[in-house]
Amino acid sequence: MITRRAMLTGTLSVAGAGLLAGRAVAATPSVGALHGRWGRTSAAVAVPPAFSVRMPRLPELSPISTLGGVDWYRVVLKETVHEVLPGSQTRALTFDGHFPGPVIRARTGRPVVIRHHNALSDPVSVHLHGGSVSQANDGGPMDTFGPGSSRTYTYLNRQSGAPLWFHDHAHHLESEHVYRGLSGSYLLSDETERSLPLPRGQYEVPLALRDAHFDEAGQLVYVMDDVFGRSTILANGRPTPYFPVAARKYRFRLLNSSNMRFFQLRLSDGGSMVQIGSDGGLLERPHVTDSIGLSPAERADVVIDFSRYRVGSQVVLENTLGPGTPEEVGQVLRFDVVRSAEDPSSVPEVLRVLPAVASLPAPSVHRNIVLSMDEDGREEPRGLMDGKVWQMGRIDQTVRHGDSEIWTVTNANKIIPHNFHMHLVQFRVLERNGGPVGAEEAGLKDTVRLFPGETVKLHATFDTYRGTYVYHCHLLDHSAMGMMANFRVE
Length: 490
Hints:
By secondary structure, this protein is mainly beta. It contains four helices and 31 strands. The protein has a domain of 159 residues: Cupredoxins -  blue copper proteins (Immunoglobulin-like), CATH 2.60.40.420. The protein is globular, with a radius of gyration of 21 Å.
């Protein structure tokens, strides 16, 4: 069960702690640099050599019925065992027995109904992250269903295509539950996306990244805010695996499913990647880059062209952020180019049309939101939103239905990073630290990173559902400590 932490003891310092040695990443702080180290609760298991296991593809769930133009699913939340580390059987909390969680594919305009049965010993609440859904189907922190019971969620899918995901959100339990496996991908497509000649079929690969801490028996060790201990990187549930590819373009649907870890991803040869989408779906235009940054819960839609490599060659997807050494966390997975293949796919110069920032609806309200956490070494530090710990019945912001608003969100901490996620709506990032945002943040978003002292300005329109929803830090260990607030659309 959840252990109340005694963390951030002693003097905190960012002075290079947790950054990978020899990497030029000083402009992007390390999460691990910003927290006190937890002592080990048990010896760590020996992690296998890098690239000694193959990365699996994530399983895709099939509906049990498609009658009436509705896709019906039945999912059981249960504890199962999996060979995550070779030779060990690791207990995990799963959706339908899959670790990491499965993929559900949905279409804009076609409803999905999922009946979840809770075969666990804790209450749960399933949240569709990034989904525009009614309050009754949002999976709020206290809207739980207990052991032995079931809950049906209906998703009308009236929003544009986006790489959504689902995870447990039961307050004070969400952090450990997600860490132990309760998350999955929900890939919503629309006609615009399906009309593009992007890589598809076997060349479209959902890719869930996270970190973990294993004991010497190969079991997941959960200690709240154990950012230093979680030093084994998993790609689709396997430690630093290899993945065979053909010499052609692939589309990778990246999800940072970690509780706490930030990733900064690059190819080991410095080669280019083409980012075509983020949390809220396709960007307007492809963004050619040599680095992809993902805070917890963020997604990136990325095309990598392996035709520039000869058959028989290899290239590693690296992570240039700590905490942890390059040997522990610097290598994510290796792509092995094993064959040639025809490639009819392409990345168009225009992917979709989004309203220009200047033409967004005029805001009726400007709000200032402050994220913070005690970082003075106290025994029981608090996570705070506008100086308050979350309370279920307190409405922190009241929004008029149909209005557009600008929220200026600030990380008031000096050494602790956060990010910001708002339920119900996708938003546009207007500014970062008073300046323009990069191309990677120019599309629709639902989660945005905030390193210490940073401020972002967001534009959101609340024209779908009425009800009470939450916004919070999606470093889930922080939201479990109270860094969350309620807004009501009425």
